[in-house]
Design a protein that fits this description.
Blueprint lengths: L1 H11 L4 E3 L12 E7 L2 E7 L8 E3 L4 E3 L1 E12 L5 E6 L2 E2 L10 E11 L5 E11 L4
Antiparallel strand pairs: 1-5, 2-3, 2-9, 3-4, 4-5, 6-7, 6-8, 6-10, 9-10
């Protein structure tokens, strides 16, 4: 379960802002929240999908967030008894996904999630992404 949560958090952290006209799926069954800190501002976003490079949607605008690379991701899981497990995942790159105009942003992100049994999940890392069409 811990590995699934790490994979979900990494997927949730798909993060660079680009307006595309789609609403954030905040009420979707598997929506996962993430806070994104970019030079252009701080964004609350959600991801609803699988995979490391799943796009995220800002919750307060029609904005999509597109990643091309993630830096080191550190996550801590605390079980209901207070026992913590910390894991660090290495950087990962999507490949040749850099936009033709070369305009990318370097951001950081954090995720926090509490479960009904009292356990919790918190992670943070960095991400590089681009704004499509700009």
């Amino acid at each position: 379960m811990f590995k699934l949560m790490v994979a979900t958090a990494v997927a949730a952290c798909a993060v660079i802002v680009a307006p595309l006209g789609a609403a954030a799926p905040t009420n979707a069954k598997n929506a996962f929240p993430v806070t994104i800190f970019c030079p252009s501002g701080t964004f609350e976003a959600v991801v609803n999908g699988n995979g490391e490079f799943t796009a995220a949607h800002a919750v307060d605008s029609n904005t999509v967030l597109i990643p091309i690379a993630f830096g080191t991701f550190t996550v801590t899981f605390t079980d209901a008894n207070g026992v913590t497990t910390t894991e660090t995942d290495p950087p990962v790159t999507k490949g040749k996904a850099t936009p033709k105009n070369g305009k990318v942003q370097n951001c950081t992100y954090s995720v926090e999630f509490s479960f009904p049994d009292g356990s919790s999940f918190a992670g943070s890392g960095s991400v590089t992404g681009f704004i499509p069409g700009k």
